[in-house]
Design brief:
single chain, Alpha-D-Glucose-1,6-Bisphosphate, Chain A, domain 4, 3 helices, seven-stranded antiparallel β-sheet, globular, alpha+beta, about 40% strand, about 25% helix, 7 strands
Length: about 160
Amino acid sequence: MKTHDLIVTRTFDAPVELVWKAWTDPEYVMKWWGPDYFTSPSAKIDFREGGTSLVCMRAPADFGGQDFYNTWVYQKIVPMQRIEFIQNLADKDGNRIDPASIGMPSNFPEDTRTVVIFKDLGDNRTEMAVTEYNMSAPDTEMGKNAELGLNQSIDKMVAIFTKK
């Protein structure tokens, strides 16, 4: 299987402390986790090295309305600069599951290493880059969907901080 590292970068009109909070505060995570039309009804955040967060993404009714859970197991945290975690599909109790058991393709990635880097640009602006390592190649359906989903999720995060 061909893989690549999926990188999404955005600039926020918000200080780094607030953009950081989007990853560490459950109320913020529930506002952006999941692509367009998906919601996040719950996020249990254990934000510390070695901690595990459990986030839920709910499909819209016309996509079946089911809940999908992910764990984020934190490997390294450098406050206001870097978050490294391993992402996996899970059941509602946070137990890791085989992606095929919920209808995902056999090549759906497990143990997705994710690194989020924050850069304070000054003037209450922040650049954030999210890298998901060893994802399906961008010329595959799964790769295209992964890139679309991550971009839509991060766009929802940007919207949290957009001045009305």
